[in-house]
Amino acid sequence: MSNKPIILYDIPSKAPGIAWSPNTWKTRYGLNYKGLAYKTEWVEYPDIADFCIKIGAKPTMTRRDGSPYYTLPVIQDPNTGAIISDSMRIAEYLDETYPDTPKLIPAGTHVFQKTFMAAYDHATEGLWPFIIPAVAKILRPTSEEFFVRTREATLGKKLTEVYPSGDDLQPAWKKVEDGFGKVDKWLNEPMNEGKPFVMGDVLSYADLMIAGEMQWCKMGFGEESDLWKDMLKWQDGRWGKLVDRLKEFEGPPEQDLVD
Amino acid sequence: MSNKPIILYDIPSKAPGIAWSPNTWKTRYGLNYKGLAYKTEWVEYPDIADFCIKIGAKPTMTRRDGSPYYTLPVIQDPNTGAIISDSMRIAEYLDETYPDTPKLIPAGTHVFQKTFMAAYDHATEGLWPFIIPAVAKILRPTSEEFFVRTREATLGKKLTEVYPSGDDLQPAWKKVEDGFGKVDKWLNEPMNEGKPFVMGDVLSYADLMIAGEMQWCKMGFGEESDLWKDMLKWQDGRWGKLVDRLKEFEGPPEQDLVD
Lengths: 259, 259
Prior knowledge:
The structure is a homodimer.
Chain A: E1 6-10, H1 22-34, E2 38-42, H2 48-55, E3 61-62, E4 68-69, E5 74-77, E6 82-85, H3 87-97, H4 110-123, H5 128-138, H6 141-155, H7 159-162, H8 169-187, H9 205-221, H10 226-245
Parallel strand pairs in A: 1-2
Antiparallel strand pairs in A: 1-5, 3-4, 5-6
Helix pairs in contact in A: 1-3, 1-9, 4-8, 5-6, 5-9, 8-10, 9-10
Domain GST N-terminal (chains A, B): 11-102
Organism (chains A, B): Favolaschia claudopus
GO molecular function (chains A, B): glutathione transferase activity; maleylacetoacetate isomerase activity
């Protein structure tokens, strides 16, 4: 077991110390589920690449032009000296390095965890035009400017044009609901029906992924928003129930305010 | 273990006794992998619905107009009296009913097997405009007429218009290769690299699904076709290697010619 706390690098928002990124949430949930000591350090969007290069964290992707793309989460483990990027790789690292803690990726399910995410992402892709513009608004100015500029360059349009409006709004939101209906149907596979998790009674990375997406929507849209309240009603309340079930693995409500 | 052979209902082609359907292949592979005795009976496309109703096999889907949709594979197990439709449900039935045989769906992976298929189908959807018209040509006249008519109704165009031609051909085929590249990348997840199967060293339903798709392409395009030969070269020969590895679970080259 670890003695010195692992450092989790996360992206701050206007709500100090409250995590919102779906990807860093996967790692945060995982660290808490494993009962490993950790502390959060916050890195604004425009600083992520330089920061990763400085500490020696690998890029997680390659851009079309061949340049490296750096993302968070990254963890730094002072017990081993390891610096790991990418939430899947972090989960694997934690499973291997701390073998006495519950597994995030049960043996033989590595490919399945990945393809579950791919299937989920495809089914719920209608969420993006809603959540990306919403997230921009909860970031602090320096990250917001960077986030909006880079996302607009990728999407080829203004985020204000991305967000569904007028007659498009209702059908676009219905499409999101239907997408989550597809995921719900998968989770209700006959042999899994009534079971709390993707793998039945055993929590795994895939559940943390879904719960992380829910944290993203809750923070991005706002807990009091109609959109989030809608999502809590969809599919018989499945998504809110999952977040509730994992509440014990959220960690403290405010994560170390190192800034 | 079974004493009386299970009956596997399959769809015939112009090559008598040679299976070609990706869905019935999943069941055929599964029965052979489990070492269960079975025999094949062949049902032409236009007869499937009436036949299923007659023997009491459930529909596998509901059409948009609410009517039931009957498909093969269906199995009939004279040892228990069970009649099961849908290759996933058949795999579950066989795992439960013959617990001493190797599992097709290891515990906890039911949802993952399903979402693997969803992710695979999405990644390789570019294959459809090639394979659907190709399959029409290998069916016997009564099935061919039914298949072409129903597929054209669903797609809203002639199958001859669906098949990529002229300047579209090369980019459309490249899209298929890239789609399989995506699946290959998933299978090469770091913790799975060099392992033969989706779950590493353990064969499961997901592998039978991929191999079934390969049988479909091999039979549909023809073993001597350029398309199939291309597929055998893609991704370092992964797909042909999988088929070779599962050769021992193909069953006899010609399946009981009950007609």
